[in-house]
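Progress note, project year one: complex with flavin-adenine dinucleotide.
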Amino acid sequence: MSPSVVGRPIARTDGVAKVTGAARYAADADVTGVVHAVLVTSDVARGRITAIDTAVASSGAGVLAVLTHDTLPALTLPAVTSFYLKRFVPVQDDRIRHAGQPVAIAVADTLARAQDAAARVVVRYESAPPQVVLADALGEAYVPPPGSDGPNDYTRGDVAAGMAAADVTVEATYTTPLQHHNPLEPSATVASWDGDALTVHESAQGISITQNVLAQAFGLTPGQVRVITPYVGGGFGAKGPAWPHTLLAAAAARHVGRPVKLVLSRAQTYTSHGHRAETHQVMRVGATREGRLTAIDHVVTQQVSRTEELLFNSSEPTRMLYDCANVRSTQRAVRLDLPTGSFVRSPEAATGHVLESTLDELAVTLGLDPVELRLRNWSAINQETGAPHGSNHLRECYTRGAQQFGWSRRDPRPGSMRDRDGIIGWGMATAAHTAGGRPGSGATVTVGRDGTARIECGTQEIGTGTYTVMQQVGAQTLGLAVHQVTFLLGDTRYPAAFASAASATVPSAGAAVVRAATAARDLVVAAALADAASPLHGVAADRIGAEDGFLFVTGQPWRRVAYRDVMARHGAPISATSTPVPTPLGYSTGAVFAEVHVDPAIGRVRVRRIVGVFDPGRILNRQTARSQAIGGAVWAVGFTLTEHTLVDPHLGRVVTPNLSGYLIPTNLDIPDIDVDFIDRPDPDSPALGARGFGETPMTGTTAAIANALHHATGHRFRDLPITQDKILAALS
Amino acid sequence: MQNFAYRAPASTTDALRLGTGTGARYIAGGTDLLNLMKDGVQRHDLIIDLNRLPLHDITPTTTGVRLGALARMADVAAHPQVRRRLPLLAETLLAGASPQVRNAATIGGNLLQRTRCWYFRDASMPCNKREPGSGCAAQHGQNRWHAIIGGSAHCIAVHPSDLAVALTALDATVHTLGSGGARTIGIRDFYRLPGDTPQVETALRSGELITAVDVPSTGLTGRYLKVRDRATFEFAVVSVAALIRTGGGGVVREARLAFGGIAPVPWRSAEAERQLIGRRLDDAAIEAAGRALTLPAAPREHNAFKVPLVRRALATALGGLR
Ligand SMILES: Cc1cc2nc3c(=O)[nH]c(=O)nc-3n(C[C@H](O)[C@H](O)[C@H](O)COP(=O)(O)OP(=O)(O)OC[C@H]3O[C@@H](n4cnc5c(N)ncnc54)[C@H](O)[C@@H]3O)c2cc1C
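Model obtained:
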């Protein structure tokens, strides 16, 4: 295999379209006759609608309909397995399960008129005081139904014996807050009906999910629903499952007999597509004096809603990462009057943060360097399954990262490193996230008579570089130049693919492209071999190589023929389609090092430096992979220092439903981020040696920052986000 | 957002005539008003665009600089006279909002921007300022951002402007024009504490225009310190505008201390200032000033941290002036 195509830092092929505005996102879809829908949402968190007055709203100019639970036709609740997570469809009855729940839909010929109509709908409620504070309800924690996100009660070995055998133990309670995804592009749907055929332009991370959910809700076959999503303006998990607004837009379109566009307002995005649930975590670890882990005991209690019991803060890292014979992980739920949670960028970050922070506490207790502690507990296998990893170069990540950061110059005493205007802290942590282990995808590769290839795959581009990387994977496998391959995605008419989530796109869609491209290439080779006039005629197929648009005899590169010529003589396109094969479970890891600076006078903290060295198997494209690592680090700064959705404890309503109240890091909050890769193929990978990587870089970075803050201040901040007031309190 | 009529008068006379009608509202940069209207927090039938009025100039005066009400934040911050004679003002303006916002936002609009209290900014929440009598959800709700001084049982929202804090330290004067004629209002008389009428925020009468702000140059050395939850593009959690003049032996002759983020109005603390006069700016004096400042503090559940934080901020600001 030639290294010439895969691995190259090719700039994203959709970049120009995006920065020039040529890229058409869901809400930009040019659908003739489209009208606009605006959701009216509940102001109360718990209760019942006693009356809805739509008379004034309906009488407005251009208003086509104002639909309520009295007038919206019944929809079927899709099964939870379809990834419609909510256990009810709103605007179907008078019950209010959480603030922000849709209670009516205003449809009008212009957006302004629809907004105006929505504002004039008068809803009366009978409400009860909601319970939304996790800390107040910990006593109500219970064992949720099994299986939603790993085992609720997992044990290996004997934790009590492991703790008893420990020379030191550390116990700590951590809390992580409610957080939201905040993609730049709010969720949007444009739905149009043609008889019983439904076409939806949707900002979706999983077009097949949206397709199936719509089919179930409207009693259609999936074939009757087409979902189109050429671009997604960020999702971070928000657009993976399907949510009510999509169903409501389609229902409204059917009702008014016109295509309907529905775009969530920014405020609505805080109640419409899930969140990272608040957690309360108790962690105990035991170790020998030498720093070998003897036991880990991790209890995670997290918020669920009144109608859903799904968990999304899995304790996966605790179960999998470190070599430890005695491990217990316990997952508990507390029902609150809040919307359902969901996947939010690197869902395991919340539990991984606690594991990695507690290990730092252990290192301090033992007087052991935190890098050394991790090296001593490194595991060659997945500790939960016992299966070996395809490859695991985590130890090299530690040592290379430490070197690049200058870790050996660290004085471990807290507060010992200073500059003119403050204290410096250095911290590190392990990044680790599963990648793959999900359903497979399909793809169709068609080599045309001009020798170029077109690849169709029903995957999505969520900003991670899928267009670019899949084009590279296809070109590499076929033996074409990158510009000879076109990659098409985001249409359910293409072979179905898994969602762009769970770091699964490269292993799932990438493997589908590899399989289809290999089959297509074999067919082209067969055509060349069968052609008596070809310089390859009669050569054994396994001796044929393909590169840069040519087929050639291995070892005799002058005996070659251009794809173009083979295809011209063949006279018809050659096509191959791959069928889904579940992907193996990969584990992408890394080591992250962070430097923070604290101004002790006012407690201000700035992250000054982040160094991350990662092992995601083979790097398909250095540039897009690096961007993933930078993005993860940025989110980690937010997770650790600023991001927190505040809910009023009495009203049960989000008080920060905008980018002014919900603080995401600005450019000035982000330091230089130094990213490096081991870049060695994983032999288990079905995608040219690459593993999934999207979620790994955020994990580890959060704890590296928090551990650096301990190093700076001598105080352990166990309640996130670590805002200035907490630092100030610790320093006084 | 509801429909409204739009007028753009070319003279202050015309503006005033339009502006005294019910349901009328002026617009300058629109960076605050439009958000409030889109979110349904404010509804107006007539929007009067002030931008054609001749109130854009930044002019040196014998005592300082006069800022036209329509002068842009960015232009004021970059003006050579302001930078030379009123460095504190330039520093403060640059600590606010973002370049994009500062290019559009005006001095008059900045002084009249509404609070960022999230209960006020969400039209469906209880808020006495927006809807007198509906209650103040912040009293027992999420009040991390709210006032520790000067609030009432009816309202504990803080005034968000950085500029107003600096102008309060600088003893600026606001020039207005109303149907009753022109007035000058000292900045300290301009803002009103909430009491039981939190909807009344300033001394302005209905339809009265701000025409200019006079900022005297003081000869004092000053500093604006803004503490916030992220590095930029964020309102102050607390802020301090400090101006000091010292005489022989480093003894403080004059001190002016104004604070943002802690009160419903830009907060000038004569008590804190008094602690500094006649003393050297040493740690003990600074400590005493901080204690005097926060003596009347009555923090709520989530904002007690502002008491030590504003003191530390004061100490840091003054420390930089030693
Ligand atoms: C994202 C963002 C971040 C921000 N960050 C900060 C910050 O960090 N610090 C800070 O201080 N500010 C900040 N601001 C607020 C910003 O400074 C104000 O929105 C701006 O100064 C308002 O000026 P304007 O000209 O746009 O006012 P407009 O929005 O046009 O008007 C505001 C109000 O003033 C009235 N008005 C305007 N001019 C006059 C006049 N001449 N006479 C009578 N009434 C008048 C209007 O009727 C209206 O009620 C921020 C704003 C945004 C949007």
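Chain B has a mean pLDDT of 97.
Residues A 660; B 25-33, 50, 69, 96-97, 101, 104-106, 108-110, 112-113, 160-163, 209-210, 235 surround flavin-adenine dinucleotide (CB under 6 Å).
No further modelling is planned for this target in the current period.
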